[in-house]
Design a protein that fits this description.
By secondary structure, the protein is α/β, with parallel strands linked by helices. The chain has six helices and nine strands. The longest helix has 21 residues, at 61-81. Bound molecules: S-adenosylmethionine (SAM). S-adenosylmethionine (SAM) is lined by residues 10-11, 88-91, 94-96, 121-122, 125, 160-162, 182-187, 206-209. S-adenosylmethionine binds next to helix 5, strand 7 and strand 9.
Length: 243
């Protein structure tokens, strides 16, 4: 039988994919590593099928390795008898705890099959909520910006774990970026905020992302209007995008 890593999407229960919902409903036990993910899970399965896994609040690598070994030892026997789901917010392969479990299962319980059901990542929730268009040919980098960090370099970045927005903002603006923040996007637990003012989100909330774009970036995007003759000389004014 199988351990499924199921992406729950950003937090609204109806943004779980059809396949994700089916896997959650069919699983004999569903584990979820946090309070918010558990509240999405319990919209789809009864509490009696939600399993318990303890994760220590630590950055110590040895303690973490031990916690994942314990988690894998709890999950593996259940997966030998039936199907198990491990549900995480967003997508299970984007900055997610599922990677730790998958690697630990591969190393210590190689007989257990592991499959992933993709979910709507906060990256897509963010581009939608902000109306940011990542157009063809554009590069977009993912980075982490916890504890006030301000990673720089790429022209466009989505920054996860923005826990100190004012400090992150200062570093990014100094480096020549425009920045917009999104908090609790498509998440039924808590108010959604989209803002360019870090003061509005100065209070720490783990579910905060930022989008940073270089101020010097050319934003000349072709539009349907580009082939309209606005000069009256009968010639097209510009180019239309191929797709
Ligand atoms: C450990 S990462 C998990 C990412 C997740 N696997 C995904 O694909 O979206 C947690 C970070 O994702 C971001 N995040 C996740 N869901 C979010 C949401 N609904 N609104 C804003 N940020 C979110 C926050 O930056 C948070 O610190």
């Amino acid at each position: 039988m199988t351990v499924y890593g199921v992406g729950l999407g950003p937090g609204d229960a109806d943004l779980v994919t059809v396949r994700g919902k089916r896997v959650l409903e069919d699983a004999d036990v569903v584990y979820s590593p946090g309070r918010l993910s558990k509240s999405v899970v319990t919209d789809h399965v009864p509490e009696s099928r939600v399993g318990d896994l303890d994760f220590p609040m630590t950055r110590d690598p040895e303690e973490l390795r031990e916690a994942w070994r314990d988690a894998a030892s709890e999950v593996a026997p259940r997966a030998r008898d039936g199907d198990v789901a491990f549900a995480t917010l967003g997508d299970p392969n984007v900055y997610s705890t599922f990677g730790h479990l998958r690697r630990t299962l591969d190393a210590f319980h190689p007989d257990v099959d592991v499959e992933t059901v993709p979910g709507v990542s906060a990256v897509s929730a963010f581009t939608t909520a902000l109306g940011v268009e990542v157009d063809a040919g554009a590069g977009l980098a993912l980075r982490e910006a916890s504890q006030g960090a301000s990673p720089t370099g790429p022209d466009r970045m989505v920054l996860f774990k923005v826990t100190d927005a004012p400090a992150t903002h200062e570093g990014l603006v100094d480096a020549g970026y425009d920045v917009t923040y999104g908090r609790r996007l498509f998440m039924e637990q808590g108010d959604t905020t989209v803002t360019s003012d870090p003061g509005e989100i100065a209070e720490r909330d783990y579910y905060t992302l930022a989008y940073a774009e270089r101020q010097s970036l050319q934003k000349d995007r072709p539009t349907a209007f580009d082939d309209v003759d606005r000069s009256g000389d009968g010639a097209e004014d510009g180019v239309v995008s191929g797709d």
